[in-house]
Design goal:
The protein is α/β, with parallel strands linked by helices and 479 residues long. It has three domains: 221 residues, 3-Layer(bba) Sandwich (FAD/NAD(P)-binding domain), CATH 3.50.50.60; 110 residues, FAD/NAD(P)-binding domain (3-Layer(bba) Sandwich), CATH 3.50.50; 113 residues, 2-Layer Sandwich (Enolase-like, domain 1), CATH 3.30.390. The chain is 29% helix and 25% strand. Strands 1, 2, 3, 4, 5, 6 and 17 form a seven-stranded mixed beta sheet that branches. It has a five-stranded parallel beta sheet with strand order 8-15-9-10-11, with helices on one face. β5 and β6 form a beta hairpin. α3 packs antiparallel against α4 and α3 packs parallel to α5. The longest helix is centred in the first third of the chain and has 25 residues. It is globular and about 70 Å long. The protein starts with a strand and ends in a 15-residue tail after the last helix. This is Dihydrolipoyl dehydrogenase. GO terms for molecular function: dihydrolipoyl dehydrogenase (NADH) activity; flavin adenine dinucleotide binding. One of its GO terms (biological process) is 2-oxoglutarate metabolic process. Belongs to the class-I pyridine nucleotide-disulfide oxidoreductase family.
């Protein structure tokens, strides 16, 4: 192992391993430190995303959606499937196989690119030194010219609902149920809560979601959020807004939760409870006192637009810095930082980061909401188009939802795109590209879209910005 590195990355999640690989591709001698270990004592790469986050949850979401389709929707398209059941343990085993394949793949990528993998818990002890403590408690110090902190985040715990293995769990524990609970409580109607609630609702749980806020998905455009809430309730999710949890008690095999809402004090009993109230940066103990790297009261590391900390040779990316806690945001920051360390000019457009909720239908958005634009004094014009009028959506038996394009009323520049519908997470890339290249709504309207596709709804929404949607009645006439 080298005595000194050009760059050491702490954390091998989507931000860290991508940054280390990019650095190596740019000709730098790179190392990545990872504390997560397998049963045989080897480093496990991929961080929360690959191991207990994005990937395993999507495996369960896809499996549970196919189950619901087979059980309830196949008959609509002429398929007689008979009595359909779900083997939860087999579903979980498949999820684990996917995780193992991907984490093993990352290990292969690191090796193929010449990145040194160091097992242990990393700590920045000076602007040029990283201390790594292995699982036996032995500490080693490595010299480096640059450090990238990519330590990620962990679920937030709240005092009213202390975790208890198998009964009151966080998002990680919710991915490990070996059977479907009859009554499932979910605290938090955010992205993680809605996704996990959807999985177990599809598999037969009576799911109640308790959300302290009064507004459903406030980060999503108002019209899209309203429709999403309506669709999820139709599927059976009991979403209770303005419900602030005040306590919980485990009684035998049940969890009794107390909360307050507009009607006063309430009580509800569950078999399992998932706490999904957000995540917090994992930075405690990652940076030694006296190094000079500044953090805020919540533990986020202060960085500039290029992810430089207050110490010139130390960078920080991903969930432990400002901005959305998203794997793809972390990865792009990792690439940017590696390029900067290699001597290149690099930047990232934080206004063009897509967000996706992988319920069914999916919810995806990028850029401003109509409400946000108006609050900033920006006059906007919008266009929407329902999937109910889409030929491909009809053929797919997926007519729920709509696409919405938001443009500047004066310049016609696209400010945001919001979609609720099948494959919204794939379609939102069109909005990202539009924002990245400063496209106008007219640019989208003049683009030739393949027919029949779900993406034609985006085309029609762009046309509708000027009232020219072809496949929607009561459109405006050209002046």
């Amino acid at each position: 192992m080298a005595d000194k590195f050009d760059v050491i990355v702490i954390g091998a999640g989507p931000g860290g391993y991508v940054s280390a690989i990019r650095a190596a591709q740019m000709g730098l001698n790179a190392a990545v430190v990872e504390k997560w270990i397998s049963k045989d004592g080897k480093p496990v790469f991929g961080g929360t995303c690959l191991n207990v986050g994005c990937i395993p949850s999507k495996a369960l979401l896809e499996a549970s959606h196919k189950f619901v389709e087979a059980k309830h929707d196949f008959d609509d398209i002429g398929i007689q499937a008979g009595d359909v059941s779900m083997d939860v343990k087999k579903m979980m085993a498949r999820k684990e196989k996917i995780v193992n394949n991907l984490t093993g793949g990352v290990a292969g990528l690191l090796k193929a690119n010449g990145v040194t993998a160091i097992q242990g818990t990393g700590k920045v002890v000076s602007s040029k030194q990283v201390e790594v403590t292995d699982q036996d408690g032995k500490a080693s110090t490595y010299e480096t010219d640059n450090i990238v902190v990519a330590a990620g985040s962990v679920p937030v715990e709240i005092p009213p609902t202390p975790l208890k293995e198998g009964m009151v769990v966080d998002s990680t524990g919710a991915l490990e149920f070996q059977e479907t609970p009859k009554r499932l409580g979910v605290i938090g109607a955010g992205i993680i809560g809605l996704e996990l609630g959807s999985v177990w609702n599809r598999l037969g749980s009576e799911v109640t979601v308790l959300e302290a806020m009064d507004d459903f998905l406030p980060m999503v455009d108002g019209a899209i959020a309203k429709e999403t809430q309506k669709l999820l309730k139709k599927q059976g999710l009991d979403i209770r807004m303005g419900a602030r949890v005040t306590g919980s008690e485990i009684k035998g095999d049940e969890v009794v939760v107390k909360y307050t809402d507009a009607k006063g004090e309430q009580e509800i009993t569950f078999d399992k409870l998932i706490v999904c109230v957000g995540r917090k940066p994992y930075t405690t103990g990652v940076i030694a006192d006296g190094v000079g790297v500044e953090t805020d009261e919540r533990g986020f590391i202060h960085v500039d637009d290029q992810c430089r900390t207050s110490v010139p040779s130390v960078y920080a990316i991903g969930d432990c810095v400002r901005g959305p806690m998203l794997a793809h945001k972390a990865s792009e920051e990792g690439v940017m930082v590696a390029d900067i360390i290699a001597g290149h000019k690099a930047e990232m457009n934080y206004d063009a980061i897509p967000n996706v909720i992988y319920t069914f239908p999916e919810v995806a958005w990028v850029g401003m909401t109509e409400q946000e634009a108006k609050s900033k004094g920006v006059e906007v014009k919008t266009g929407t188009f329902p999937f109910a009028a889409s030929g491909r959506a009809m053929a797919n038996n997926a007519t729920e939802g709509q696409a919405k394009v938001i443009a500047d009323a004066e310049t016609d520049r696209v400010l945001g795109m919001h979609i609720v519908g099948q494959h919204a997470g794939e379609m939102i890339a069109q909005g990202v590209i539009a924002l990245e290249f400063g496209s106008s709504a007219e640019d989208l309207a003049l683009t030739c879209y393949a027919h029949p596709t779900m993406s034609e709804a985006v085309h029609e929404a762009a046309l509708a910005v000027e009232g020219h949607a072809i496949h929607m009645a009561n459109r405006k006439k050209k002046k």
